[in-house]
User: Fold Regulatory protein SIR2 homolog 7 from Chrysochromulina tobinii.
Amino acid sequence: MAELAASRLSSADVSSSSADVSSREARKLEQQALRLAAEAARELQRKLKAALREPSPERSADARALLEAHPEETAKLRASAAKAARVKEQQEANATEVEEDEATLRVKIAALADMLREAKHAVVYTGAGMSTAAAIPDYRGPQGLWTLHNKKGGGSSSAAGGARNAPCAARAVMGQSFAETRPTIGHLALAALVRKGLIKQVISQNVDGLHLRSGVPPSKLCELHGNVFRERCPSCGKEYVRPFDVTGKSSFHRHGTERACERKVCNRAELRDTIVYFGESIAPADLSTAMEHSERCDLAIFLGSSLKVLQHYKFIWQLPPKPQRKRMVIVNLQPTPKDHAAELRLHGRCDTVLEQLLVSLGMPYLPYQPAKDEVLKRQVEPARGSELMRSKAEREAADAREEAEAAASEASLDEAGQGPPTASAAEAAVKGIDCGGTPG
Ligand SMILES: [Zn+2]
Assistant:
């Protein structure tokens, strides 16, 4: 009885193990067949693409026969080639700068002057195009950092290479330091409009500090992506404006400037630069200022921005219902994704438009005064902010701490639904700073 049972058991074992073997083999064969089919499909795609590359009048009989034998695949390939061509055309159109003739601009600038007089809370948003006249490169113009990066085969304007470190990339192209640049006529005209009360707030993506240097009062200025001359204490929040660029050692999630806060209670906390790189969050204080003014704003004027980054800041575009709906004006040489929403669209240089706007409003133009330059005037003050000496281990520990804090603050901003756009949002890549700037 026991023997019979054992023999049954063993034959059952044998049959189950042979079933295992055959199902394993079947799976293997199936996988092999799938692999061969995928290879054959790839080979067919390669041949079809080669056939399509032949100009149709000269296409060989073999190539024609191949395309006719696979009508579905051929149609798909034609459609995707057409889409790629449209995208390329759009990119080229976006990089093309159009300047309207003087007479057209004059009429539009007069209309803008009327809109400013009527507005209760006009807010100006500026991008890199505001500072190109100061020889600071923009991002998407014909000579922009990203345009050149893409031409060199850099692919998307992603955080790759120098594009991530915008102040650094800008400095390399400028061939001069940020401290050596000067505010342009446009910056000075804008500062005059702010002092006159016609513009209530300037919200800038530029990190070049030129709005501050041209005389826009700090309380009327919100530098969304920081300022190369500003550093901040992470402990008490005190800000220091320096007569030099504080971002020499700065990079993504590495903002320590190796200078210490002067306040005793901060126990020599290391100051940090204020730059916001692609993928980092806007400082909470700057974000809340920008949100508050964007909400109160009844006239939004966008100057020198492609809006590629700004279009992702929801707080700008969440419009109140009519009749409080804000009016929008866009001044930019290249097309922007929000052109359709603008009541007035000016294809002109920021300097030209702002200078003529002052004339139109009957306001005097005040030339640049180095003695009143918020950055330069500090060069004659005694040096402040003691230098911190750090070992490599201390440096690494400080960087790790900063990275952990950034991750925590980004998580809390995401919860609030105000996380800044990522590079990918902007252009299948990066979140941007307009380095007078960083991208925008
Ligand atoms: Zn402090």
Observations:
- The CA atoms of residues 120 and 227 lie 28 Å apart.
- The chain has two domains: 55-88, 102-427.
